[in-house]
Amino acid sequence: MDIVDIVDIVERLVPDELWELFERVVPPAPTRPQGGGRRRYGNREVLAAIVFVATSGCTWKQLPPSFGPSGPTAHRRFSEWSRARVWAKLRRLVLDELGPV
Questions:
Q1: PANTHER family from the entry (predicted)?
Q2: Residues near 25 by Cβ (< 8 Å), separated by ≥ 6?
Q3: Which of 21, 47, 80, 96 is the most exposed place for a label (fewest CB within 10 A)?
């Protein structure tokens, strides 16, 4: 799978409209005072991985490597965002902006 395929998957699972709303509620990434380390995967790629797990029925460990972030990475970010109440804030924002579906 090449980079174009991955971008298509991410954009299909996280359309621009959803991404714009999500950016308004997601907390900023923590900074690492010591620097270095691996690059943190982008929120949109991780969100796409979370949406895939939630809608496909696969486990975090079964997340295809083509998403970029691993299952444990996606699960860790899911947990971080859950503690920050991102999902509740996103739901409220979707209802306020788009109305009931």
A1: BLL5188 PROTEIN, TIS1421-TRANSPOSASE PROTEIN A
A2: 86, 89, 90, 93
A3: 96
